Amino acid sequence: MMAKNKEPRPPSYTISVVGLSGTEKDKGNCGVGKSCLCNRFVRSKADEYYPEHTSVLSTIDFGGRVVNNDHFLYWGDVTQSGEDGIECRIHVIEQTEFIDDQTFLPHRSTNLQPYIKRAAASKLQSAEKLMYICTDQLGLEQDFEQKQMPEGKLNVDGFLLCIDVSQGCNRKFDDQLKFVNNLYIQLSKSKKPIIIAATKCDECVDHYLREVQAFASNKKNLVVVETSARFNVNVETCFTALVQMMDKTRGKPKIIPYLDAYKTQRQLVVTATDKFEKLVQTVRDYHATWKTVSNKLKNHPDYEEYINLEGTKKAKNTFSKHIEQLKQEHIRKRKEEYINALPRALNTLLSNLDEIELLSWSEALKVMEKRPDFQSCFVVLEKTPWDETDHIDKVNDRRIPFDLLTTLEAEKVYQNHVQHLISEKRRVEMKEKFKKTLEKIQFISPGQPWEEVICFVVEDEAFKYITDADSKEVYGRHQREIVEKAKEEFQEMLFEHSELFYDLDLNATPSTDKMSEIHAVLSEEPRYKALQKLAPDRESLLLKHIGFVYHPTKETCLSGQNCMDIKVEELLANSLLQLDHGRSNLYHDSANIDKINLFILGKDGLAQELANEIRTQSTDDEYALDGKIYELDLRPVDAKSPYLLTQLWTSAFKPHGCFCVFNSIESLNFIGECIGKIRIEASQIRRDKYMANLSFTLILANQRDSVSKNLPILRHQGQQLANKLQCPFIDVPAGTYPRKFNEAQIKQALRGVLEAVKHNFDVVSPVPTIKDLSEADLRIVMCAMCGDPFSVDLILSPFLDSHSCSAAQAGQNNSLMLDKIIGEKRRRIQITILSYHSSIGVRKDELVHGYILVYSAKRKASMGMLRAFLSEVQDTIPVQLVAVTDSQVDFFENEAIKELMTEGEHIATEITAKFTALYSLSQYHRQTEVFTLFFSDVLEKKNMIESSYMSDSTRESTHTSEDVFPRSPRGSSLDYNYPDSEDDAEGPPPYSPIGDDVRLLPAPSDRSKYRLDLEGNEYPVHSTPINCHDHERNHKVPPPIKPKPLVPRTNVKKLDPNLLKTIEAGIGKNPRKQPSRVPAAPPEDADQSDNYAEPIDTIYKHKGFADDIYAVPEDSQNRIIKVRNSIVINSQGEEENGFSDRVSKSHGERRPSKYKYKSKTLFSKAKSYYRRTHSDASDDEAFTTSKTKRKGRHRGSEEDPLLSPVETWKGGIDNPAITSDQELDDKKMKKKPHKVKEDKKPKKKTKTFNPPIRRNWESNYFGMPLQDLVTAEKPIPLFVEKCVQFIEDTGLCTEGLYRVSGNKTDQDNIQKQFDQDHNISLESMGVTVNAVAGALKAFFADLPDPLVPYSLHQELLETSKIMDKTERLHELKEIVKKFHPVNYDVFRYIITHLNRVSQHCKTNFMTADNLSICFWPTLMRPDFENREFLSTTKIHQSVIETFIQQCQFFFYNGEIVEAPNPVACQPPPSNPVQMVEPMVPLQLPPPLQPQLIQSQLPADPLGII
Fold this sequence. Notes:
Distance between the termini: 144 Å
Number of strands: 29
Radius of gyration: 57 Å
Oligomer: single chain
Largest sheet: 7 strands, mixed
């Protein structure tokens, strides 16, 4: 039962492998391959195959359990499955003969039969015999698998006869064949199947194989299988064939010849190898190890197959080769990188062709090693070569290994480098040659295309040599140079014609006629024509220049960093700081000085005599003076001593003063020369800066021969030299004395030294109060042109080299103080050094006692600017003209310099001014004495200048306030009203063109209610906080919005003087009251809910009146009050500074004129421009009129001074042709009576109100219908998109956005540039956000029809009156849908933008209310001439405000939002401590309502209203 349940065992067969065996004599040096054949069959894996098996064993190994004292080996069993799927087990026995390693004879075994008999045995028995694996197993059986032969016995079922067909080792094949034949005979007797295995066929000898086949063919059923154990070819086949012979039921295997079988086997190996190599290729890091990779791949079938076929050793070798390839590839790439980087290194270290052109590579290497940058380009390794070091792994180290440079590749790179330098040198030479060729071609003009020039240079040698790209690059560079030069010359030309621009009304936009006049004047200049092909650039330069004339600041100066203001501030900051530092060290303890170091200078022993006299009066070198004892250290030095300068100042002796003694004209002159040398040594050679502060005292020695005839002359000459040197002069006292010096002289001299030391200490003492520093006796302004070809140090050296020079008031970075003896007293002179453009504001606003006007005699523009500036200076102010050149020789050798110096001297003669010249190569002219006469002249006229200035201030404020707060410097009859604290101080006017530091006088606190603009006109102080710091950030404080007069209409005439008299009478009856400290109640027309005032530029008003509207500080209820200040324009009879004829006559004084009316040279220059458009008036008439009747000019807002009447410039210099003569006005009115009648005709049709176009150029974009500017794809005009995008990207947080006006010149420039190129980038233009906002508003203002159609205005008004909010909003939404589709899209876009702006109201203070005030006149285009319209302005504004607030509801189906809290977005309040009283409005008719004026005034004879 048990046997039936067991599964049938697979059949088992035992195969005995036999063949030639025995001693070396019998078989030769090697066996026939029986063991290898068995090994390959039983253990076919490559790692388990051992090619070496020995039969020479020791006795111990022979007796071990593996051999077991037998001459056969048990190889184990193999389970094999046939083609039919039937398994069988094959036991393998190898019959051999083991040789004793001692005797080299066969070991003695239990079976003593010879091998032939023993090998044919069919029954084998050996108890506990172990399976044989390899030779290493013998003696170490426990380290290998231990498997016993089944039951210790086996029955042999077949024989595998091995015949070695290779070239035997010391064996004859015939002997083997003979042995095989005998063995076969013996095997045949057993009746067991036999197969011949031809072994070692991989080393087969063909005829041996043929003999074997012949041998087998002679035998019955004897099959030969060609095998190779090394390559595992047909090994399994021979065993399988033998099994088939033993079991006929099995399929008979096909016996394949060795070569065919070998090919099949090799193909299998190649396929497996390819797969394995691809597997290895996945490893990319040459640092990987076999252990890591094999563990990762051990389960991969391709890996296992290759290991089985080829073995681990080959697999590891394949892997190692791959890793080496990776490493070599890495080294190759690194080397390639180094070779590629070598040219850059050579360019760095060996860039000079002249140095290396003749050097070999080895010589060049030595030169490179000495370069300081060698270590940054190369690395010298301790071990070489570099590719065998760890440097190959330092991928971040880009330095080239120095040993790499010894390769041929590196040497080739060096040779190419030299050739490149040679060719580059040639290329550069030819490019420069071509550049010179272009420079010789005269007709090449700025902006000329290359295509127009190429035909003229096509035959040029250099042009043929260089490439097209090089030729275009050279021409482009040439064009840039000539364009830049042409632009510089054009700018210089504009400065030369300064009178043409500074003649403009600074509160007016240049009209088309005026611009035409400017172009007409400039077009005659070759420098104007040079930019003919760059007309847009030329126009931009012109507009930029005009903009600078209106907004002159050092930040916008056209000279950039060469601006005179910047250079002066830098020089004064350094020079005065060093000067004060030196004095502080020198006189640090001067307050309690008890020792005086004196240097005594004299000639022919006079110095020693004076020293002896002082010592005689002293006791042990101690001198009693004014009750105090001083220790004296005297150093007498002869003036002729060659060591004078070295003895004067040493580290051990620093003198406090120098006594200079003389007793003759010769010694006096010698003393003067010595002092000059000392000062030059101190100031010019800069040997010791402190020496420049040394005080000198001139002492006249007494003549021994009673009364000398030369004494008066010596006294006079000595006093003159002392005045020149600005030092004391000690005269000989009256009476006769026996000695040359007396005690009174010495004491007086010592007192002078102590006073000088004390004065120097006072200069560097802590900064005194503002009152002390501002008390200058004279205030002088020195003006110089920006960009003039001389150093600032040259024109300031007369002051800085003076020992009496010190810093001015803190904050005045461009001023210095001089202490000079003028007349009999020491005076304090404040010198403020400014550029001409900065001086314009000072000329209008500040008290100046004199001007020093500097110009370069090498530059016409410098003279042109001087003329333009000097023309407007009051003729009561003394002027010093200073021409600057290199030397006096220039006057005789250079005609241009001679002409300019002559012109300057001629102007000085005409206006009775001083004239001098400064020479950069001369030392004398750098002394302060150059201006001594000028300072004296200024001091004489001081009272007259101040009286004239105060009279001007009084007359200017006649129509503004009854109180006048004069400003008077120290020494005049009027005193200053200095502020008691900083809280009371008035800040500088916002947007001062010259900055805070230029203001010469502190504004008195009593004038805090008013400020002076640049023309001297007063305007009220508004809500800008006094202590705000905005002015420190380039004056970015929005100025008070000033009224801008309406552009005059065609038929409207000037106001009748009678009308003005009536208005003035009204002013007289209701004078402005003295402001009180109690806040006034808001006026009736004040809207307390508004945060910002209504900007005046959004509403056009009649010229006779203007509203000054702005928010003033909050009242006690924290409400911002809007005040309307009605200001009457001065009558046409008023003078330049606001005087009326009546006021002038009542004062009974000489009214100051301007220098242009005293100089024919100045006036002729201005008149030459005036003639171009006013040729009908004679020169004499113009000159006479301009001297008697001139129209006052008023400078408007610094932010936007150009938005003013376009025709106010007419009339020449200061408009002399415009007068207030009643007869002339009547004549003008009579000339065009028909136009007046036309105005009075009733209009039946309601006309569309179109405001005057502000543009003065033709445009094919601006002013066009909206429908022409959009498409279906782009429903928003491109210009609107660009502006909105710019504002939202850069300016949403800008305070006062859309309220603060931008620069009109910039606005025009934006539109002009867009006209020329629609793709222009606003960011690249460098314009401000306010300028872009102004340009955007101007776009909508210039549209032929307003964005909100007139046809819907009435509906909007009616709907706004609906009380219910929800109903009102829905009705408005329906009205908006009636817009033209184009208008609707643009309106939605701009309202959405304004909504985004209002969302930033906490920073920009622009609520929807404020934005609607700014935008509703632009979007709705109201007709202010229609009286009915004036009463609905607030409703129109509220409509736009509603659209902005409810933007999401109207256009994006959003919800209705609640109105925001207006308090949250209010602008910052003014100083809460100081209360500013609202101005009491004048009792005049309300603005914007001319019909009310008619009811109060007589009939208008001129037809103005």
